[in-house]
Amino acid sequence: LKWFRRPRKRDLQGSPPLEHGSLVVAVHVRRGDVKSTGPLSFRYLPNEYFLALLDSLRDEGSHRGWPLPLDVHVFSEPESDASWDEFLSRGVSVHLGGSLCDVWEHLMEADVLITSKSSFSWVPAFYSPPSSIVVFTRFWHLPLRDWVVVDDVASMQEDAMSTRLPPSSSTGLVRIPPVPRQAPAVLVNTTHLAAIVFDRLGRM
């Protein structure tokens, strides 16, 4: 806990983007053992999902005449079954590997944090400052009430744990029933996400 509470480049209260010259967007893309096929595929989000979110943010910023450039950083793992070329062609900085503390530092300091279906990004989202906007993709961890929850993937099976995992007798895993969902403060699809984000930024 001391590590989470120590002073950072942006203090724990955060600072609005207008004070540090750009809109920093951090994206965690869960890869490694999570692939598009296999027992963990229910946690896989394709590159197209994240690209759609980023494109919507850029389009909305341009439409509103947002005065600051978007500084987008993707954090993931070297092992991936998809190319990073489409991110790079959009001017996105892609960071593969790195120490846990360094990655969490970047995720916590972002103005906008886009999570994966992963505890790895849920933890820094939980400890991010009040000025950060967390864009959360639903999975078994519940969102905080001020997070923006993207519902485009809501049709992914709520019972994926029981339908896609191999039988417990062969894996030693216990099948877990779906977790009841807490009603979030904001539930949006990708079309409305950018408008919500920029509305909040305009109030800072």
UniProtKB/TrEMBL annotation:
Specify the domain of life of the species encoding this protein.
Eukaryota
Listed name of the protein: Peptide-O-fucosyltransferase
Source taxonomy = Eukaryota, Sar, Stramenopiles, Ochrophyta, Dictyochophyceae
